[in-house]
Amino acid sequence: PLQVIQLIFLIQKEKFDIIHAHLFPSQYWLAVASLFKPFKTKLIKTEHSVFNERKKYLLLRPLEKIIYRRYSKIICITEQVKINLAKWLQTESNLLVIPNGIDIKQFNADAKNGIHINNLFDKNNTSILMTARFDTISKDHKTIINALKLLPPNFRLFFAGEGPDMNKVKEYTALQNLDSRVRFLGYRPDIPYLMCSADINVLSTNFEGLSGVTLEALASGKPFLGSNVTGVNTIVPNEHFLFENGNHLELANKIKAINNNSSLNEQMTIEAKAFIEQFDTHKMVNQYLTLYQETKC
Question: Does pTM top 0.85 for this prediction?
Answer without folding.
Answer: no
